[in-house]
Every structure is written in C-alpha cells, then in structure tokens.
Design brief:
Elements lengths: L1 H18 L6 H24 L3 E2 L2 H6 L8 H9 L8 H9 L2 H30 L4 E2 L6 H4 L1 H4 L7 H5 L2 H4 L4 H28 L3 H21 L8 H4 L17 H22 L10
Parallel strand pairs: 1-2
Length: about 280
C-alpha cells in the first residue's frame, strides 16, 4: 500500500507541474484550429441542411479525418516533449524511492496526460458547437444526407471530415468510443517511447522516434498503402479500418487495440527491465 501511495503521489505531482507549464498555451491555439478546420465547416453544413449537429460529431471528425490526423499526435508530442522531467523535485523522487516505483509513477502520469488531452479535445470541440448542437449519440441528418441533397458538392471539404465510410459502418456511439479509446492508446504509446528512451539515457532519441512514427504514419495512411499498418497512426483511426460500403473490415479493429495496448505494455516492461541500469540525473 505504501508503494501505491508513492506511485500516486509521484504521478499527481508530475501532473500538477505539467498543468502549470507555459507550454499548455498551445491548447488555446489548438482550439482556434479546431474552430476553423472542423466546427466552422460543420456549422455551414448544418445551416445549409437546416439541421442541428450532435455535440459528439466534431470530436469524431477530429479523430477520423485523414486531413487532420497529423496535428493531434504532434500536439501531444509538443505538450509532453520534456517527459520525464529530470530535474528539481522529480530528481529527488528518483533518488529517494526505488527506480521501479518511479517508473510506475511516470507511467501513471502518462496515462493521466493522455486522458486529459482526449477529454479536453472532446469536451472543448463540443462546447464550441454549443449554439448549433444537440445531445444525441447518432449522426445528424446534416452529415448523413448532405451529398444526397447537394450531389454537386460531394467533394467538399466537409464530406472528408465525416465521410460515408464512417457513418455507414458504425453508429456515432461506436465511432466515439473507438476514437476516444484508440486516440488515448496512441498517446500512451508515444509517451512510453519517451520514457524508455530517457531510461536508456537517450531522451532526444525518443522524440525523434515519435516524430518519425507520426510523420511516416501520416504519409502511409494518406496514401492508403498496406504499409500504414506498421505504424500506430493507422491503428488510431477507426475510419481506415473499414471499406466505404462493405461491412467487412479492411483490418480488424480489435487487432489495433492489441497493437497499441500491447506496444505500450511491452515498452513498460522494457522500462522495468532496464530500471537497474538507470542513473537519475544522467543522460540526455
């Protein structure tokens, strides 16, 4: 019980310090981006269709658009680039408690950071839509019938935010659940790469690996090649798991959960195995 208390204390202190960091101002910039790239086009679509949107649709669009998929993981990487901290009170924890307890505390913080960003994006995108939305977990008439009413606009930007491939293959509740879960697991996997690289004394190598995975994942996913399944990006996007009309999945979504969660757990176990060689305060 004492170990659990210490792990919780380390993660809580790390989270509080992270929340006070000036880097979180990036979230304000992200809200402007969400309004311009997601909310505004969806509102215009709703006005044309004389219908109201669901509060869950903007976040679902944000987490499934091949146009926007690069921005979200890069945002998380920018916010968590200094993870794990290796100075101040964090250095004190590393010296006074066992290395494995410190690793568990950092892992719990990574979980909290991922949950925070997912909830922030989901809630803020819904709140921005407040005057044009309503509470219901089903795709709106404005989204599902836009190309039927305006066939000449079937290639509009809004149709790529929430495409037929998504709402014809799953309900909004299912799409929201998978988007939240897979996005969180993606964030956690990225943070565990940073943690392992820091424990190996090569902290900046972790940032380069994460950047490499994000950029190549975006390119291969946009191209639609089979190589995209080598990278976590494709696994975090529910929409790419299905064809546009056939119900048979291109790639089992359950396998993506295993890929992301299994990858994070494997990295955590590597961190624990590497713990005895880790020296607090050393390494880049």
């Amino acid at each position: 019980m004492e170990s659990i208390r210490i792990i919780w204390h380390i993660s809580f202190q790390e989270f509080c310090r992270w929340m006070r960091h000036s880097r979180l101002i990036i979230l304000g910039v992200m809200l402007v981006f969400i309004h311009i790239q997601v909310i505004k086009p969806l509102k215009e679509c709703a006005q044309l269709m004389e219908s109201r949107l669901s509060f869950a649709e903007p976040f679902t669009a944000l987490g499934n658009s091949s146009i926007l998929c690069l921005m979200i993981p890069l945002l998380f990487l920018a916010l968590i680039a200094e993870f794990p901290q290796k100075d101040g009170i964090d250095l004190f924890y590393q010296i006074r408690c066992s290395k494995r307890i410190w690793i568990c505390g950092q892992t719990l913080f990574a979980v909290g950071a991922g949950i925070f960003l997912v909830l922030f994006l989901a809630l803020s995108s819904g709140l921005i839509l407040w005057d044009s939305g309503e509470w219901r977990l089903e795709f709106s008439y404005a989204v599902t019938h836009f190309t039927t009413v305006y066939p000449e606009r079937s290639w509009d930007y809004v149709t790529r935010l929430l495409s037929e491939k998504l709402y014809q293959q799953m309900t909004l509740a299912e799409a929201l659940f998978h988007t939240v879960s897979l996005m969180f697991l993606y964030f956690w996997l990225l943070s565990m790469i940073l943690l392992l690289s820091a424990i190996c004394g090569r902290k900046y190598i972790g940032i380069l690996i994460d950047s490499f995975l994000i950029i190549l994942g975006t390119i291969t996913t946009a191209a639609g090649t089979r190589l995209m399944w080598l990278f976590p990006m494709a696994h975090s996007l529910p929409i790419v798991h299905y064809r546009e009309y056939l119900s048979e999945p291109v790639f089992p979504i359950g396998a993506s959960y295993l890929y992301l969660a299994g990858g994070g757990i494997a990295l955590f176990l590597c961190c624990m195995a590497r713990a005895k060689w880790y020296q607090a305060g050393k390494g880049n």
